[in-house]
Amino acid sequence: MTLEQLRIFVTVAELLNMRAAAETLHLSQPAVSAAIAALEERHATRLFDRVGRGLELNEAGRAFLPAARNVLSRAAEAVQILDDLSGLLRGELRIAASQTVATYWLPAFLTRFATHYPAIRLKCSVSNTMQAAAAVMEREADLGFVEGQVDKAFLLHKQPVASDDFNLYAASGHPLVGHSLTRQDLVDAQWVLREEGSGTREHLAHCLKSLFQLDLADLDIRLVLPSNEAVLEGVASGGLISAMSDLAAASRVRAGLVVPLGCNLEKRRFHLLRHRERPLSRAAQAFVAML
């Protein structure tokens, strides 16, 4: 069993598609298929079930996946140690960030770091808050940046790095525009929200509870969408309202497509996440120093 075989297995297990895995790994599809076949044959254990043209992890594959990820993570840490010995002349920095942070706050710091340290490979994955936290927890990312709360079960150190204004938004012609919002207005309104696990949805839930004694279950949620851009498009299209970062909504506000409802929701903080049991690499330390 080689690290390359493990890397291929993990990628195929995540994508459940040989062709997509080959493209991700910049390998040929026959090479990917051969690596999986060799791994299964060497240990006389099938890891995938072939269902039509698709793949599914079987019980053995599901049991093996966490261990394979752990081996790859430990190997990456060994490489990191050698990279650190060379200073910042080579290496890799992996960052996981939630959508609002990654789109509207983080790019300036990524650009500055890439300019100062051109020999460091910089990788940034974008997801929601819970997925970004999980990436740091599982050692798939060196640093995380999120706008939502993080499950206390995660062994993560959390450090505030910025704040974000937050508001309710509607299309310019919506009947709630220009009115002082009441609890009943929010109950009667029709909503479009981000998906569960997003910091935007979580902060709305917090604000509703603290300011209006409402739960998300009290709202008429007509639509759930997986990105800020999609939610704002939904708001701009007509009768739905939503809660959103002022940073995310700014361009559509300037264009007159959406307007804030002036609800004075609580600010939220952006946080840096790092693993409590894993020391920061020199590259990660240099990035944090730029914040």
Automatic annotation (TrEMBL):
One Pfam family hit: HTH_1
Single annotated GO MF: transcription cis-regulatory region binding
Keywords: DNA-binding, Transcription, Transcription regulation
InterPro entries: LysR_HTH_N, LysR_subst-bd, WH-like_DNA-bd_sf, WH_DNA-bd_sf
HTH lysR-type domain mapped to chain residues: 1-58
Family: Belongs to the LysR transcriptional regulatory family.
Protein name per UniProt: LysR family transcriptional regulator
Organism of origin: Acetobacter aceti
